[in-house]
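Re: weekly structure request thread

Next one in the queue (323 aa):
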Amino acid sequence: MGSSSTVRAVGAILHRFTNGVPSNSFIVSRNGLLKSSRKLLSSASSVSSSTPLYQASINSHEHQLRSISTFPPLCMGRRSSKIAGRKGAQDAKKAKLYSRIGKEVVSAVKKGGPNPVSNMVLAAVLEKARELDVPKEILERNIKRASEKGQEAYIEKVYEVYGYGGVSMVVEVLTDKITRSWANVREVVKDYGGKIADPGSVMFKFRRVRVVNIKVTDADKDQLLAIALDAGAEDVIEPPAYEDDTDEDRSESSYKIVSSAENYATILSKLRDEGINFETDNGSELLPITTIEVDDEAMDLNKELLSKLLELDDVDAVYTDQK
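Done, posted below.
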């Protein structure tokens, strides 16, 4: 038996001991990259609550006052494998974004026709595409594609999964063949040691928000705080710090401005006015309410499962609650 199979077998045993029950939360971005230190979990009882990844406070007295709170999680180490293939990961994330917007265009055209003046659903999708800087040719190609014979509308589906060490995962799918997407997700989860969760047993651990990512080298924290507060953002999340970070690691880390859908466009506009480079989400993201720590082995096994899920054409995003 190969070494990878052995690792997965050991991980599966750990997973059984944790009984697949998630107790805390973490977010993994669509690029699936993780970096953190891990403590060895010998049993399910060793999984304990960790500090929330983010926190936002709104103080209500006679007047509604909003305060932005930042929280820089600090870890004293992380797994030995450093962040690798950043360019490839960013390209993959962008490809997933373009794919999802293309599917949404097809579905909108199938429902209401190719004219955005009379088709308000299509107009909303095109507006979002402009906000996310999706190339015009991708939109035009998918409008044409929607009229092709045999092309079906796309349907949104969410699958909930348990990974190793009690970690939870949410798999977002936009597909024109539900039976195909379900079979593919189920096969990957089974092959890589995960477990399909019952509907609703994972989703309550996350909340849906809009997120703007800004590299630490592109903006000053105080400047971002001022912009976020002025634009009505909910939170500014500082990137985690690790004792073995290199200068390159630090330069590639990002702040996250968390916002409601209503204030998102205002935040982007203010960032543009200030000349700050940023990366948008793909329409929304799921942030975990709390995070869970696992050992290095479980972390790598979860990363492998995440990567394989993201390779599926129908899968647009995978979120987890691993720290």
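Residues 13-87 have pLDDT under 50 and may be disordered. The CA atoms of residues 20 and 236 lie 31 Å apart.
Next request, please.
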